[in-house]
């Protein structure tokens, strides 16, 4: 068996999720190659080569892959997939955009967002917003899979894989990149942070999210939000934790002014320790919280910041 | 332009689901069903394009059992002009659905096809992308804004870290994200009128597609229950527990 892992990268850097996907590939077993596709991705390929368990890094460096648009990426992967039994990518917006396109081009099913490997053809994945766990078995010759990064521990970076170029430039007349608007943040990436503190509708306004910042700084935490807070316009939507936003599983998750709708729980209930701060003691969030504090967040947050 | 909208009948998103005792699947008997929320957004976007004079005709389509006609009638009440039902009782996975939809796209030749980004039952997030691949069309997934300009489609997409805008050649496939729009409710007179709008029923056999799946559902289990937690009385107690009991902060 041989496995191809599609590297995730942003702004010239290999994304942390890739090391988690390689861990999932190790759980399947077999030779692991990593594909780095993009423009000027030499440094990213070198970073990928350091991941433990990787035997070869294949580099597709061309302008057509610059923003990893689904149309050329699907074609590139479909051209390479013949050498492999499995193609894996992180269940990020890039992986979710590209892999189903590859699967359909190869006429195979795609298995989304696996959280465990049972065997080389059998995997576990959450369905119904994480309220049920399905075990699925694929009879396809090629398995195309996206991996929930937080469900696998990252591999170390002590490896030394070989790097080779892939001669596979494709044409793309279907789509083109126009622009990007990225939210700026100095904090750890939401999906990879060890501590996450999130605010909900109870925060009252975007201004009040500042109350979370001091605590986040002291804990080295990322700041998240519920869909209600995003829909109310308090914060941008890339901060959203939930079924339709980011899935996180940090060591500590602090939910502030969040009621705990199914949609939100799907994004954070695999956290190791959950703390809820809410003034409504009937809020469903208290049913999943390890530690609950029934209090007014406007009093509790400054006190918490001071005592940390 | 002609717009095709795919909708799916799923369990209502407010229902707390139950796993069957034999672990074969989720129990759907006597459970309230509805149109998948992302599909509602897709229908709304098509209707708004028609209201702006961009779309000339809206065709709603679904793949599924006889009861899924209810969701097509809902789409018709919301503003779709006619509907196509690909009727099957098989368990249809994304690839099968995409193959059936690809046949409908081939027959209807819509310039724009809109789907939801994912269905809240299987949480796959695959069908739109697969349909785009099967019809060799570009895809604008997780769209939060859609505009037709100079014969091209401009799609703003929600990506990790922010927003990305891409330009797609028409005909194209778009999948909706939550922030694309706020779907309207169907009005009673429109629900009555929708009963008279044309609804075509076809079978996968008539379309010449296999919708069965090579993906076997081995079992379905409830997720591991979290241990019931404790309520603390003060911020001091909370900090103490996190430091000394849970040991997650130092």
SSE layout:
The complex is a heterodimer of chains A (308) and B (250).
Chain A: E1 2-6, E2 9-10, E3 13-14, H1 17-28, E4 31-38, H2 42-49, E5 56-61, H3 70-80, E6 86-90, H4 93-105, E7 110-114, E8 116-119, E9 122-127, E10 132-138, E11 143-147, E12 162-165, E13 175-182, E14 195-199, H5 210-219, E15 222-225, H6 227-231, E16 252-256, H7 262-268, E17 273-278, E18 291-294, H8 297-307
Parallel strand pairs in A: 1-4, 1-6, 4-5, 5-12, 6-11, 7-11, 14-15, 14-16, 16-17, 17-18
Antiparallel strand pairs in A: 2-3, 8-9, 9-10
Chain B: E1 2-6, E2 9-11, E3 33-35, H1 37-51, E4 57-64, H2 69-78, E5 82-87, H3 94-108, E6 112-116, H4 127-134, E7 139-149, E8 152-159, E9 162-169, E10 172-176, H5 188-194, E11 199-202, H6 204-207, E12 215-221, E13 230-232, H7 235-245
Parallel strand pairs in B: 1-4, 1-6, 4-5, 5-11, 6-10, 7-10
Antiparallel strand pairs in B: 2-3, 7-8, 8-9
Highlighted features:
heterodimer, A: 308 residues, alpha/beta, Rossmann fold, 8 helices, 18 strands, B: alpha/beta, 9-stranded mixed β-sheet, two-stranded antiparallel ribbon, 7 helices
Number of domains of chain A: 2
Task: State the separation between the terminal residues of chain A, measured CA to CA.
Answer: 50 Å
Which architecture of chain B would the CATH scheme give at its second level?
Answer: 3-Layer(aba) Sandwich
Helix content of chain A: 25-40%
Query: What is the rounded distance between the termini of chain B?
Result: 61 Å
Multimeric state of these chains? heterodimer
Mean pLDDT over all positions of chain A: 94
Summarize the main sheet of chain B: 9 strands, mixed
Structural class by secondary-structure content of chain A? alpha/beta
Q: Mean pLDDT score of chain B, rounded? A: 95
Q: What spatial order of strands do you see in the largest sheet of chain B?
A: 9-8-7-10-6-1-4-5-11
